[in-house]
Amino acid sequence: MKSMDSIRSLLQRDEVFEFLVPEVPPDLDLTHGIILYLEGINVCFDGFKAINELNLYINNGELRCIIGPNGAGKTTMMDIITGKTNPDSGSAWFGQRINLLEMDEPEIAAAGIGRKFQKPTVFENHTIIDNLELAMAGNKGVWSMLNARITSEQHDHINEILQTIGLKEQYRNPAGSLSHGQKQWLEIGMLLMQSPKLLLVDEPAAGMTHQEMERTAELLTSLAGDHSIVVVEHDMDFVRSIAKKVSVLHQGSILAEGTMDEIQNNQQVIEVYLGE
Questions:
Q1: What percent of the chain is helix, strand and coil (3-state, nearest 5)?
Q2: Tell me, what DSSP letter sits at residue 224?
Q3: What CATH number is associated with residue 203?
Q4: pLDDT tens-digit readout, 119-148
Q5: Distance of alpha carbon 96 from alpha carbon 108, whole angstroms
Q6: 43-76 pLDDT tens trace
Q7: Start-to-end C-alpha separation, the chain
Q8: How many separate domains does the chain show?
Q9: Are 252 and 246 in contact (CB under 8 A)?
Q10: CB 258 within 8 A of CB 241
Q11: Please, is 217 exposed, middle or buried when counting C-beta atoms within 10 Å of its C-beta (0-12, 13-18, 19+)?
C-alpha cells in the first residue's frame, strides 16, 4: 500500500520537488573585492610545463579577457578553476574561504562557477524554454524531470533570462533551429539558470557573424557587475569591444596585464605573441 502511495506521489504534477530547490552553496566571502585567486599554480603533463607559477586575480564583478597563443595554458587554467585538472602545486581560492583544490567539479559548479565551452552544447530536440528548465540546478533524473513543476519564482527567472539572451520571442522553438550565435546565447542562458557568480567563457566569438559578435559583446558586458566574467578569446577586435583589462598568458604564466592599448604596445607581447 505504501508503495502505491509513493507512486501516486511521484505522479502529482502540482508538487514542487526538492531537487528544484537549489542547494545552498558555501559562503562566498568577497571582503577584499577579489572573487578568484590563483597563486603559484604549476601543472606538468609528461614533462611539459603547461602552467608555470601562474598568478591571476579576478575582481568581483569585472569582465577580464585572457589572450595568448595556442599552447599558452588557457584551457588548462580553466580546467583548474573548474576542478577538471588538479595542479601539481599552488593554490586556487573562490573568494576568501572556498578552496577550489579541495572540491570536485559538481561542488565547484554548486559553489557558483559556471563554464561555457567553445562549442555550444544545447539539447537541440528540445525547445529553448525546455533547455533553460533542464539547466536548473539539482537532480536530473528522468522521474524527477517528468513529474516536477517549476515554482513561480523560477518561471520569472526563466523569463528574465530569455529577455537577457534575446530569445524571448522564440522560446517555444527547438534549440536546433537556432543559428550558431543564438545557440551560444542559449548556453549562456543555461549557465545563468544556476545563478553563478563567476562565468568562464571560451572563445564566444568563434564562428559568429559580425552582427552576432556585436550582440554577444552587449550580452557579456551587460552581465558584468552582477557576475564576474573571464573570457578566453583570439579575436582581438572582439576583445577590444568588451575588455577594460586584458591578461596575456604565455608559456603558462602571465606575461602582461593592462588595457588593450597597453597590451598592443607592450614590447614583450609584440615579440612573443605577434612574433615580431
A1: 40, 25, 40
A2: B
A3: 3.40.50.300
A4: 878 999 999 999 999 988 554 554 455 456
A5: 15
A6: 999 999 999 999 999 999 999 999 998 889 999 9
A7: 78
A8: 1
A9: no
A10: no
A11: buried
Q: b or e along 41-57 (b: 16 or more beta carbons within 10 Å of the residue's beta carbon)? A: bbbeeeeeebbeebebb
pTM of the entire predicted model: 0.85
Q: For residues 99 and 87, give the distance between their C-alpha atoms in angstroms, rounded to a whole number.
A: 13
For residue 104 the three cell numbers come to 570536485
Provide the 3-class DSSP secondary structure of residue 70. coil
- Residue whose C-alpha cell is 598592443: 264
Nearest to 100 by CA among 22, 39, 45, 50: 39
Domain of residue 111 covers 2-273
d(CA 175, CA 260) in angstroms, rounded, equals 35
CB 263 within 8 A of CB 66: no
